[in-house]
Amino acid sequence: MISLTEAQICAAQNNDLEAVTAVVEATEERIQQLARKYATGGGRTDQTLAEDLAQTGRIAVWECLARFSGTTVAEFFTYVDRTLKGVMSDTRKEETRQGVSRSVAASFETALSMADGDPYRAERVAADPDALGDRRLSPEMAYAARLSYQGAEYLDAPIGQNETGDALTLADALAVESEVPADLLEPSDYERERRKQTGIRVRRTLARMSWDQSTVLMALTGIVPVSYYGTERDADLAADYGLRRDQVRIIRNKAKERFAELWEGGA
After folding, report:
1. Whole-model pTM above 0.90?
2. CA 234 to chain CA centroid, nearest Å
3. Count of C-beta atoms within a 10 Å radius of residue 64
4. Does residue 155 contact residue 170 with C-beta atoms inside 8 Å?
5. Would you say the C-alpha torsion 110, 80, 97, 36 has a positive or negative sign?
6. CB distance 36 to 45 below 8 Å
7. What is the pLDDT of residues 36-49, one digit of tens each?
8. Which residues of 118-141 are buried (b: 16+ CB within 10 A; e: fewer)?
């Protein structure tokens, strides 16, 4: 981050592409750090959520350029850091607090902190009047709050009702799709299905992008049929796909923005 200059920040605010690229590169490591932090709970990191948070963070950096009114590099990165933490925290709550009110989610967050991040222990703490006092939850609401916190990947998470009016869980839905009894399913079965659906959505999004942008993005992580190039082999990537070496980085940055736009639009 500290490699940026005040002149570069000022130029980026005036939409200078080279300066904007420098800001994007300078903030990417911090975006990734915070995305992993806010996507981690109960000893596990939700990689899909981490990717969503990172995309949210990149958009937030662009918005920071438009709103920043300070003058120094230190002020800029303090502002960016505060903004990233705020938007990622809000996004995480929106993504992982479906089905419960803000007050219930807040009580569970308190219980989770008291339970050292263990969601199952937090469920018990949340319903304990000695622990939360007037903010305690009923056992049923504490259970709902835990499911909401853990997210839809948990097989016992309710997703509606079946034709007879009984509660329908993800395990039930997967059992129908996979023709395997619900009591034989494991969390890894849903994780596999979720990764499959995410992969399909990624490819649909890439298909709506220009050839050069989709190719450079696929090369970033090695999405078939493009091999992995990362960000250190731009010269090889340019030579292999007939691109200009000096344009690869610019294409990548624009591609990330376009991908985020399409993804947010439900591609």
Report:
1. no
2. 26
3. 23
4. yes
5. negative
6. yes
7. 888 876 556 778 78
8. bbebbbebbbeeebbeeebbeeeb
